[in-house]
Specification:
Distance between the termini of chain A: 63 Å
Helix content of chain A: 55-70%
Strand content of chain A: 5-15%
Oligomer: homodimer
Order of helices and strands of chain A: HEHHEEHHHHH
Largest sheet of chain A: 3 strands, antiparallel
Structural class of chain A: mainly alpha
Number of domains of chain A: 2
Chain lengths: 206, 206
DNA sequence: ACAGCCATGTAAGTCGTTACATGATTGC
DNA sequence: GCAATCATGTAACGACTTACATGGCTGT
């Protein structure tokens, strides 16, 4: 139900149609939860059926309609419930780490490619998360400004602080990932030279 | 396809039936990738259909049969391909972090519950990952011993090193999560007292 | 007129979750 | 005889992915 709550959270800033929601999503929530528009549209329909959002349809040309969603009281209640109710942390499904634990099935070069890609990936995300945290801290995105200006938003310092702490936390995690990958690369060099040394010794003994 | 590769990796140690595989899974791969037996049995059937594993059926009572799976050459090829081929890192779906970014929809106490649960969760996992890494480093699990004794296992030091580095990495990540949660708890105290101070000031001014 | 963005979807397939279901063997 | 554990599944549902599909509006 994460997508649902993410969309509700965005709609507390202001009413939006699916397209705008998808765009705003990509520049905010997507830093923790990715979703393509093909998932957003049907989810909004389901949320409408569950009365979490209300829709205003606007004609567009002869056939098309633009659907503007706004959060309902039921929707706000669901957001509150979502945070107030303790939620078990999901079971682990770390495909990346799984590959990392079984690199022995490939060559040393494949292992190097793995760690290099890992390092590059998290170097990128470290920057992105850090920038995003700074932007929120500075009130420097349209979304956060709209959100803080919206009625019934609680203490602005609190709203900002939770997000900043989350994204700085992610940046710190990413930093550790980068360090881990670099150590991995050094480790592979050691493993390979040691394996070669043993192979050479074995050849002499034979 | 992670489950598939995890099962193949386990079968390089020795042939096993679904039940044993599920048990061994829980004490090894499950530290990075969770799967219940209800997923393992059908997956093994599919892997058989794809010739990644071969089966020996053994009668058991009048009706039951025990199915012992072993990895085929095709299966070993698939493991190699899995590691040799660069794989894109999955899109982010971090439900826990999403909740963390939107704690403002609940009370300060709900936020405290969130961070407390987060801290406890990762304290547990930090210990588990660290212990698991140590056990592998010491060759102290049945699986790793069987694996190292199995034919066609490569350099034992390499096999062990990849896993130890992975699990120590996870332990380090978990440690950071714990620190992050503790900082979160301190942050909430600050936010709440500051919000109360502002509320009191507002009351005076009115 | 054409490109680029606005706008909304559907469809097929894969993977994972939770709950249900059944029977055999072993040790006490 | 009974409990624990061995052993193997099915079913319904929910969530996510990738690809396909269609048409409107806007500026040059």
């Amino acid at each position: 139900m994460s997508l649902r709550h993410a969309l509700l959270a965005l709609l507390t800033a202001k009413p939006m149609n699916g397209y705008d929601l998808a765009k705003v999503f990509d520049r905010s929530v997507a830093y923790v939860w990715h979703a393509p528009h093909s998932q957003i549209y049907p989810e909004l329909r389901r949320m409408e059926a569950d009365h979490l959002v209300a829709v205003e349809s606007i004609r567009r040309g002869t056939k098309g309609t633009k659907r503007i969603y706004s959060i309902t009281e039921t929707g706000r209640g669901e957001l509150r419930r979502w945070i107030e109710t303790p939620a078990p942390i999901d079971m682990l499904h770390d495909a990346e780490r799984l590959r990392g634990a079984y690199l022995e099935f490939g060559s040393y070069d494949a292992a190097r490619r793995y760690y290099t890609a890992h390092r590059d990936h998290y170097e990128l995300w470290e920057r992105q998360w850090a920038v995003h945290a700074d932007q929120i801290a500075a009130g420097d995105t349209t979304l956060i400004r709209t959100r803080l200006a919206a009625p019934r938003t609680g203490d602005p310092a609190t709203v900002v602080a939770y997000k900043v702490h989350t994204y700085r936390g992610l940046a710190a995690q990413a930093h550790l990932e980068v360090e881990w990958a670099k150590q991995g690369l050094a480790m592979i060099d050691d493993l390979e030279t040691q394996a070669q040394a043993r192979a050479a010794e074995g050849a002499l003994t034979e």
